Amino acid sequence: MKQRSRKIGRRVSRLLGVLVSLAVAGASAEAKTACLRGVNLAGAEFGDLGDDYGKGYIYPSKETIDYFAARGFNTVRLPFLWERLQPQLYKGLDSAELKRLRDTVRLIRASGMAVILDPHNYARFRGQLIGSETVPQSAFADFWRRLAAAFAGIDGVAFGLMNEPYDISAEDWLSAANSAIGAIRQTGAANLVLVPGTAWTGAHSWLVGDYGTPNASVMLAISDPKDNYAYEVHQYLDTDFSGKNTECSRAAEAVKAIGDVAGWLRDHGQRGYLGEFATPATADCLPALAEMVKTVEQGADVWLGWSYWAGGDWWPEDEPLNIQPTKSGDRPQMQILSRIFSEQSACDR
Fold first, then answer.
1. How far is Cα 342 from Cα 346, in angstroms, rounded to an integer?
2. Rg of the chain's alpha carbons, rounded to an integer?
3. Is the C or the N end of the chain the one with fewer CB within 10 Å?
4. Strand pairing of 128-129 and 124-125?
5. C-alpha dihedral sign at 276, 277, 281, 287
6. What is the pLDDT of residues 84-105, one digit of tens each?
7. What is the pLDDT of residue 34?
8. Which of 154, 164, 60 is nearest to 109 (CA)?
9. Cβ-contact 337, 293 below 8 angstroms
C-alpha cells in the first residue's frame, strides 16, 4: 500500500507539472493547475481524401479560436486526418498539411489555449485497421515518431494517440498504443500523451468490455518511459451513447459511468481526460450537460479535465451538438458552460 501511495504521489506531481505547461498564458501560478476546459474544433477531419483545402476540409479560423478563448476555454482538441498528414505509410509528412497544422497550433497557443493533437481516424488508415497486414502497428508507431518530432518540446501541446478505436481487441490496441508511445519517447518528446481504449473508448463500457477483455483490465499495461500519460474516455448521454441522437435519455447512466471510471482511476493511481461529450440544447438536456461537467470537475484529483464536442467554422446551423456561435450570439450550451466557468470548482482549489 505504501509503494502504491508513493506512485500516486509521483504521478500527480508530474501531471500537475504538465498542467502548468498547458496553462493559459499569463495566468497566475494558482490558476495554472486548473482543469483543462476544452472544446473540439472540428473541420480538418471533414471531407474526402483528395478534397482541396478550403473546399472539402478546413482548420479553425482565428476568429473561431479567439471566440472560444474569450469565453473561458483553455484547451482545444484539434481533429485532423492521418492520411492527409502522412499520405503514404512509412513516408514523410506532407509539408503543406504539416504547415497548416503548425500554423493552427500557433494560433491556438497565441490565444492562450493548449492544444491536443487528435488524429481522428478510429484506429484506421484509409479504412484499414491498425494491426492489419495493410497497416501494421509499426506504421502507426512511425507516424507518431514523425509527428512527435515535429512538435517535441513545444509548450502547451499534448498528443492524443487516436480518436475512438473500435472493432479491435483491447489487447491488440494496447500493443499498438505502447508501440506509438515508445516511438514518441524515442524522439525525446516528453509531451503529455492521452491514451484511449477500444470500443470507441466509452466510459460506459470501460469496466465491462465490448470486445472481450475490458479496457479497465488491459490498458493498465500501458508503458511510458516518461510516465506522462492519462487515459482518454468519451461519453455521450443519448440512447446508445453515440451522440448521434437528439436526446439525452441516458444522462444518469452517463454521469454514473464517469464516476465509475473515476473510481477505477483512483484505485490504480491513474489520471483521465474526458475527450468528448455533448448534449442538444433542449430544456431537459442542458441541466445534464452542467451535471456532466461538474462531475468531472469535482473529481479533479483524477480528471485532468474535459473537451466538449464540438465547435468549428463549418458546422451547419442545425447541428444539435454544435456550440459554434450564431449571428445572434452564444448557443444555449455555451451559456451553460459560461456559467460554470464563472463558478469556483474543485479545479480551482
1. 13
2. 19
3. N
4. antiparallel
5. negative
6. 999 999 999 999 999 999 999 9
7. 59
8. 154
9. yes
How does DSSP assign 80-97, residue by residue? E-HHHH-SSTTSPPPHHH
| Region 319-337 average pLDDT | 96
Sign of the four-CA dihedral 143, 146, 152, 154 = negative
**Beta-sheet strands, E only, within the chain:** 36-41, 75-80, 114-119, 124-125, 128-129, 157-160, 193-196, 229-234, 272-276, 303-311
To the nearest whole percent, how much of the chain has pLDDT over 70?
Answer: 89
CB 147 within 8 A of CB 85: yes
CA proximity to 86, closest of 141, 164, 166: 141
Q: SS3 for 17-76, per residue?
A: HHHHHCCCCCCCCCHHHCCEEEEEECCCCCCCCCCCECCCECCCCHHHHHHHHHCCCCEE
Q: What is the pLDDT of residues 96-137, one digit of tens each?
A: 999 999 999 999 999 999 999 999 999 999 999 999 999 999
Alpha-carbon gap, residue 88 to 251, rounded angstroms: 42
Catalytic hit among 164, 232, 253, 291: 164
SS3 category, 118? strand
How many CA atoms, within 13 angstroms, populate the side-chain half-sphere of residue 37? 28
Set of cell numbers at residue 136: 501494421
Topology, domain 2-342: TIM Barrel (3.20.20)
3-state secondary structure of 230: strand
Clarify whether 83 is annotated catalytic: no
Residue with cell 482511476: 265
Tell me if residue 63 is catalytic: no
Query: Which residue among 45, 83, 232, 276 is the active-site one?
Result: 276
Which of 141, 137, 228, 221 is CA-nearest to residue 189? 228
In angstroms, the Cα distances linking 65 to 81, 148, 176 are 20, 23, 32
In contact, 262 and 298? CB cutoff 8 Å: no
Give the residue carrying C-alpha cell 484506429. Answer: 123
Residue with cell 484511449: 196
In 179-302 the beta strands, taken as DSSP E runs, fall at 193-196, 229-234, 272-276
Residue 8 is predicted with a pLDDT of: 42
